[in-house]
């Protein structure tokens, strides 16, 4: 019996060995007949190869992916080209490194004079201009040089009186009178030595020479020979052109690069081949609203020319000139400017992941230099970014991106709500049209009917329309100015409510919202310069100004 059992066990074991061996052979045969699609890294799924090998990043052996298998999931944002694709598309990358960012700003402006150095020369006494020694604008004069001679009877009388007292015996009264007259003559423009010389000679000069107090250029002449002038009349204006201002505009995007003391290289077509260098001395803190730019000033030396026959300064007034400002930052993290793309207005770069795989990555950029962007976030030092072929990568990334989910349909208002809103807006629109037509009686009549649509609106919308209910109780004013002041808060609240509803329901697109930026000028009680109002599908009619400026305003869209 025991021998029989042993024989049965041996036979069962042999059969099992035969069965499982046959099964393994069938599996190997099946595996050998399946086609391998590619080999892939389990740790870095974007690393793929047509042949067995190891991952180029971690060194792990690549796993085969057979036909019918999906392989390891990779990030859908990644763009994979493979070695051949990288060569064909001409992809080039550079490392992210710390560099100095340099920026060259080119500006244009005018050469102007420093008006603080101007001196106006006025008539010191009443009289007649006998002779002009300088009779044209632009003449170069030196301090103390006579510009004109003045015959003044008042001056002659005072000088004769002074000389008469000088011949009298000395006394306290005489000395006081002479001191007073002398002070007056000095104010007339006579110098102390000139007065003493005239007194010593005992002669009264017939004319007073008008002298320039500074060396400079005559920029204005307001007198002619033979002209009678009164004390205080302006005769000449002299400006010192030995130093000039180069004034130019810098746009606000370039202001971070412009600093006090920064050197500016200046050239002008009037002086070909010449480059002047001078530091910035002033940056206007008030920007020009229209151009969003600030005035910047540089002081330039302006010597006289050495050319014969040209007794003038090198730089002429109101001359056109160009400038170049070169600035730089401290070493900071940078990428080339051509590495940064701006899809949808956001800065984006493509980072190399290895083995022909690239990742789109949004970054935060700082200042832009001539060739480099400052990187404020999103990249680390030694990351490699694509500088050539990134537009092709971005196009492929757009193709790889899954389609956007269908948009959620806009909500619509219930019919009772829509009717209540339209009735209320129609009444408010009629009130505005009455003011636009300058018809205060019509406004009063419509205002009395506003309570009914306002109550229906409150019933349908509850708390959403709570703000409108108290504003709908307009005072019974007969004056159109008072009516506009009372209508303003209701109109503003109704405009806000209409904008909200139009965002919810396309069926309210007949409700137009308009705004005038000059409403406060005619409605002084308005808290803001801007005033909005509602109109139902009609041409713009300004309720704040009426016929005076009926078409002033613009539509406000939700």
What is the element layout, followed by pairings?
Elements: H1 2-33, E1 36-40, E2 48-49, E3 63-66, E4 79-80, H2 82-89, E5 92-95, E6 97-99, E7 102-113, E8 119-122, E9 127-132, E10 140-141, E11 146-151, H3 153-166, H4 172-188, H5 192-201, E12 208-211, E13 216-221, E14 228-229, E15 234-239, E16 243-251, E17 263-267, E18 276-283, E19 293-301, E20 319-328, E21 332-336, E22 348-354, E23 357-362, E24 364-368, E25 372-377, E26 384-388, H6 390-400, H7 415-436, H8 440-447, H9 451-461, H10 468-471, H11 480-504, E27 511-516, H12 519-522, E28 531-536, E29 554-555
Antiparallel strand pairs: 1-2, 1-3, 4-23, 5-26, 6-21, 7-16, 7-20, 8-15, 9-11, 9-14, 10-13, 11-12, 13-15, 16-19, 17-18, 17-20, 18-19, 21-25, 22-23, 24-25, 27-28, 27-29
Give a description of the structure.
There is one protein chain. The chain has 12 helices and 29 strands. Helices cover 30% and strands 28% of the residues. Mean pLDDT is 82; it is low at 23-31. Helix 7 runs antiparallel to helix 11. The strands form 8 sheets. It has a 6-stranded antiparallel beta barrel with strand order 7-16-19-18-17-20. Strands 6-21-25-24 form a 4-stranded antiparallel β-sheet, with no helix packed on it. It has a 4-stranded antiparallel β-sheet with strand order 8-15-13-10, with no helix packed on it. The protein has 558 residues and is an alpha+beta fold. The chain is flat, with a radius of gyration of 45 Å. It folds into 5 domains: 36-74; 119-239, OB fold (Dihydrolipoamide Acetyltransferase, E2P) (Beta Barrel), CATH 2.40.50.100; 243-328, Efflux pump adaptor protein, beta barrel domain (Elongation Factor Tu (Ef-tu), domain 3); 337-400, conserved putative lor/sdh protein from methanococcus maripaludis s2 fold (Beta Barrel); 415-555, no CATH class. The chain starts with a helix and ends with a strand.
């Amino acid at each position: 019996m025991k021998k029989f059992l042993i024989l049965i066990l041996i036979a069962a074991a042999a059969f099992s060995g035969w069965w499982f061996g046959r099964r393994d052979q069938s599996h190997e045969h099946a595996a050998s007949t399946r086609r391998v699609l590619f080999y892939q890294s389990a740790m870095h799924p974007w690393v793929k190869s047509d042949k067995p090998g190891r991952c180029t990043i971690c060194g792990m052996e690549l796993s085969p992916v057979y036909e019918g298998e999906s392989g390891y999931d990779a990030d859908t944002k990644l763009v994979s080209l493979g070695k051949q694709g990288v060569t064909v598309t001409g992809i080039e990358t550079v490392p992210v490194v710390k560099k100095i960012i340099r920026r060259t700003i080119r500006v244009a402006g005018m050469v102007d004079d420093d008006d603080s150095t101007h001196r106006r020369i006025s008539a010191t006494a009443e009289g007649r201009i006998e002779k002009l020694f300088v009779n044209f604008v632009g003449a170069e004069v030196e301090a103390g040089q006579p510009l004109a001679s003045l015959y003044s009877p008042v001056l002659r009388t005072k000088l004769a009186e002074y000389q008469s007292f000088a011949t009298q015996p000395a006394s306290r009264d005489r000395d006081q009178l002479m001191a007073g007259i002398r002070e007056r003559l000095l104010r007339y423009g006579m110098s102390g030595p000139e007065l003493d010389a005239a007194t010593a000679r005992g002669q009264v000069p017939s004319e007073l020479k008008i002298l320039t107090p500074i060396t400079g250029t005559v920029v204005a002449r307001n007198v002619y020979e033979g002209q009678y002038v009164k004390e205080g009349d302006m005769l000449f204006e002299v400006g010192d052109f030995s130093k000039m201002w180069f004034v130019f505009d810098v746009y606000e995007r370039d202001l971070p690069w412009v600093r006090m003391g920064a050197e500016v290289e200046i050239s002008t077509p009037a002086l070909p081949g010449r480059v002047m260098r001078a530091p910035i001395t002033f940056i206007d803190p008030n920007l020009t609203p229209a151009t969003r730019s600030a005035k910047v000033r540089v002081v330039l030396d302006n010597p006289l020319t050495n050319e014969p026959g040209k007794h003038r300064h090198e730089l002429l007034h109101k001359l056109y000139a160009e400038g170049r400002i070169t600035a730089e930052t401290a070493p900071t993290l940078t990428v080339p400017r051509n590495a940064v793309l701006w899809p949808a207005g956001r800065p984006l770069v493509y980072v190399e992941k290895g083995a022909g795989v690239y990742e789109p990555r949004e970054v935060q950029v700082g200042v832009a230099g001539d060739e480099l962007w400052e990187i404020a976030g999103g990249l680390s030092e030694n990351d490699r970014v694509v500088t050539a072929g990134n537009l092709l990568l971005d196009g492929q990334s757009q193709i790889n991106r899954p389609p956007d989910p269908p948009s959620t349909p806009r909500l619509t208002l219930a019919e009772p709500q829509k009717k209540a809103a339209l009735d209320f807006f129609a009444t408010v629109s009629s009130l505005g049209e009455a003011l636009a037509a300058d018809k205060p009686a019509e406004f009063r009549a419509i205002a009395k009917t506003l309570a009914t649509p306002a109550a229906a609106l409150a019933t349908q919308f509850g708390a959403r329309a709570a703000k409108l209910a108290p504003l709908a109780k307009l005072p019974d004013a007969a004056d159109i100015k008072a009516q506009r002041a009372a209508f303003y808060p209701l109109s503003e609240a109704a405009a806000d409510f209409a904008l909200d509803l139009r965002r919810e329901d396309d069926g309210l697109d007949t409700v137009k919202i308009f705004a005038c930026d000059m409403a406060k000028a005619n409605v002084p009680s308005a808290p803001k310069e801007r005033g909005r109002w509602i109109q139902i599908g009609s041409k713009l009619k300004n309720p704040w100004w009426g016929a005076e400026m009926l078409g002033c305003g613009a539509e406000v869209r939700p």
